[in-house]
Write a structure and sequence with these properties.
It is built from 12 helices and no strands. It is an all-alpha fold. It is flat and about 65 Å long.
Length: about 350
């Protein structure tokens, strides 16, 4: 099947089917359904990758820079890669039961997120790529910490009640989950910090361009506030000698959960997504002056009437200039008829 025929619904359905197969383990545990869930997740990842490749080819940009729609799909793609890596290492693990719901939510939310291509600050491609990469890796780390903390609390509750581990809910030890959670927070917070720093740099650099980015807006303020919460959690984990695993899990769930919820809310309900309405107040007027074509430019064009393609080129490249010589004349539509 050609890659162009792969749609978002293809891998959304694959991930949803894999989640349903995981849930059926509580009704009747079976190796067949477990392998079906793993294969469904793998098939979704293949379709997911093909979809991002087609989108990147059409926009001539990497998915991290093309649109908020593609950025959110890259985030969910990273989580699926982590899930499959753990499942290949230990296929009896119930990690997909905790990791697939966020993936399904993100892929479903991507359907309603803006797909318009971001063309601002094209001269700073490297800095934009660095900013987007740090941001998506930091948020992926937060997702991992959130999932691991949920697994820790479920395992802690089972051990506290001295219940036997069901075959359909095989989890890792509390010590391993606590160690993974610690590393996920320790790695993700510096990445998000660097992403915010590069974002501020890009916003300040854009002040001298035709498309300035405003820092004082809802998206940036909320992100900075939740980053401060993550930074407090980071400092506590680094300085505390023997932090309680259950307390760490709960604080991680609150901090990372709020950050992920805010991210999805901004993408869905705020114009422009995570960056809000990025253009400054004077940007529309500047754009208007750049794209307004004077009437005399149209009169200077010789040949048949302007097609939509020629108008698009004229609007992009600015006013049409032709040599001022004796051959220049006003175009008469009657002369072009056969």
């Amino acid at each position: 099947m050609p890659l162009e025929h792969v749609t978002l619904l293809c891998f959304f359905a694959s991930y949803l089917l894999a989640l349903v197969l995981e849930l059926t383990q509580f009704v009747r545990a079976s190796q067949l359904t477990r392998w079906g869930a793993i294969l469904g997740t793998a098939a979704g990842l293949v379709a997911h990758t093909a979809y991002l490749l087609v989108r990147s080819r059409d926009s001539q940009l990497p998915p991290l820079l093309s649109s908020a729609h593609d950025w959110l799909l890259v985030l969910s793609w990273l989580i699926v890669v982590m899930l499959l890596t753990i499942l290949l290492w230990n296929r009896h693990s119930a990690v997909a039961l905790f990791g697939l719901p966020p993936v399904v939510v993100m892929v479903g939310a991507a359907r309603f997120v803006s797909q318009s291509t971001d063309r601002i600050l094209v001269d700073l491609y490297g800095w934009k790529m660095l900013h987007a990469s740090l941001w998506v890796l930091g948020i992926a780390g937060c997702c991992a910490a959130f999932i691991i903390s949920l697994m820790y609390l479920v395992q802690h509750r089972r051990l506290k009640r001295k219940q036997a581990e069901p075959s359909e809910l095989h989890l890792f030890s509390l010590e391993r989950l606590s160690r993974w959670n610690w590393w996920a927070v320790i790695v993700s917070v510096p990445l998000i910090t660097l992403a915010l720093m590069t974002g501020v740099f890009l916003a300040l650099w854009s002040r001298g361009s035709d498309q300035p980015v405003r820092l004082v807006q809802t998206g940036f303020v909320l992100t900075a506030a939740l980053w401060l919460t993550m930074a407090v959690l980071f400092g506590w984990l680094v300085t505390a000698r023997h932090p309680g695993g259950r307390i760490v899990a709960w604080r991680t769930i609150w901090a990372c959960g709020l950050l992920l919820l805010m991210l999805l809310a901004q993408q869905l309900f705020i114009e422009g997504g995570i960056h809000g309405n990025m253009l400054g107040r004077d940007a529309p007027q500047r754009q208007g002056r750049l794209t307004r074509l004077p009437p005399e430019a149209l009169l200077a064009v010789e040949g048949p009437p302007l097609s939509s393609g020629r108008i698009a080129v004229a609007l992009r490249d600015g006013p049409v200039r032709t040599p001022l010589d004796s051959t220049r004349r006003r175009f008469d539509p009657e002369e072009s008829r056969p």
